[in-house]
Design a protein that fits this description.
279 residues; amino-acid biosynthesis; alpha/beta; 49% helix; 12 helices; lysine biosynthesis
Length: 279
C-alpha cells in the first residue's frame, strides 16, 4: 500500500484510511504498510507507527495488516518490529539488510534476531536486485525451522529455487514480482504482495480467483489483460510508488519525483483500457 501525503508533504492519515478501506472492499485480503511502495526509506519511525495504528483501526481485526520493518541496521529493525507489534500489526515484512551485503550466516542471524524480538510472524523479503544480497534457498530451508518465520515475499526471479523451498517447507510464498504472480501461484504459492493492486485490486485478484476455480484458461486470459498496465507501472524505469501516485494522485517524497506528463498519460490510457469490459 502507498503512503499518502498532503500537498505540504505531511503524512495524510485520512487518505490512508480511505485507501485502505477501498482496497479491502475491492478484494484485498490483507495490507502491507511501510514497504518500499509505501516510501518507508523516507518516513520516520513515528510516521510508520501512526500509519499502522490508523489503518488497523480503519479495517478492523478481520483484515491482516503486515508492517514493513526491514532496515540495514539490525538494532533499528528490532526496534521497528516491537513498535509495529505495539501499534497493532499482525505480521512483519523484513527485507534482507541492504548495501552492506552480509554473507549468508549474517543474513540468517539477522532474521533470527528479528523473529525473536516480538511475538509476530515474519514474512522474509527476498529482493537481491535492490538489496544486493540474496536469501539463498539453503538459508531459507534453515530459517523455516523457526516457528515465527512463516512466509516469503519472493522477488528472487528464481522459480526453481522457490519451488524447491516450497516443496521442502511450509513457508507461504507470495510473489513480489507482478509478472510472476500467476506462475508462482501455479507452483504452490500463497498469493502476492502487489503494487499494481493499489490501483487495480479487483483485476489482480480475478486472475488467482479464476485459477482457484479451475479455470486455467480464464486465468491466463485475465493475466494477459493486466500485463500492459503491469509493464508500464513496474518495468518502465519509474518506481512503483511513482506510477501508483500518477494514477491515484498525491505527492511523493524526495528523492522521488512525480511522473512526467507523457508517462502519466500512458499509465492512464492503460488503466482506462483495463477498466473497460471484456469483449
Amino acid at each position: 500500500m502507498i503512503t499518502p501525503f498532503t500537498d505540504s508533504g505531511e503524512l495524510d492519515l485520512g487518505a490512508a484510511r480511505r485507501h485502505a478501506a477501498r482496497l479491502v472492499a475491492e478484494g484485498c485480503d490483507g495490507l502491507v504498510l511501510n514497504g518500499t511502495t509505501g516510501e518507508s526509506p523516507t518516513t520516520s519511525d513515528a510516521e510508520k507507527s501512526a500509519l499502522v495504528r490508523a489503518v488497523r483501526e480503519e479495517v478492523g481485526a478481520g483484515v491482516a495488516v503486515v508492517a514493513g520493518v526491514g532496515t540495514s541496521d539490525t538494532r533499528h529493525t528490532l526496534a521497528l518490529a516491537r513498535q509495529a507489534e505495539e501499534a497493532g500489526a499482525d505480521g512483519l515484512l523484513v527485507v534482507t539488510p541492504y548495501y552492506s551485503r552480509p554473507p549468508q550466516d549474517a543474513v540468517r542471524a539477522h532474521f533470527l534476531r528479528v523473529a525473536d524480538a516480538s511475538g509476530l510472524p515474519l514474512m522474509l523479503y527476498d529482493i537481491p536486485g535492490r538489496t544486493g544480497t540474496r536469501i539463498e534457498p539453503e538459508t531459507l530451508l534453515e530459517l523455516a525451522g523457526h516457528p515465527r518465520i512463516v512466509a516469503v515475499k519472493d522477488c528472487s526471479y528464481d522459480l526453481l529455487g522457490s519451488a524447491k523451498v516450497m516443496a521442502r517447507t511450509s513457508l507461504a510464498y507470495y510473489s513480489g514480482s507482478e509478472e510472476l504472480n500467476l506462475p508462482l501461484y501455479a507452483l504452490g504459492g500463497a498469493g502476492y504482495v502487489s503494487t499494481v493492486a493499489n490501483v487495480a485490486p479487483r483485476a489482480m485478484r480475478a486472475v488467482l480467483d479464476a485459477f482457484d476455480a479451475g479455470d486455467t484458461v480464464g486465468a491466463r486470459r485475465l493475466n494477459r489483460r493486466v500485463l500492459p498496465l503491469t509493464e508500464l507501472m513496474m518495468a518502465s524505469g519509474l518506481p512503483g510508488t511513482v506510477t501508483v501516485k500518477a494514477l491515484l494522485g498525491g505527492p511523493v517524497r524526495e528523492p522521488l519525483q512525480p511522473a512526467g506528463r507523457e508517462a502519466a498519460d500512458g499509465l492512464r490510457a492503460a488503466y482506462d483500457e483495463l477498466a473497460q469490459p471484456e469483449t
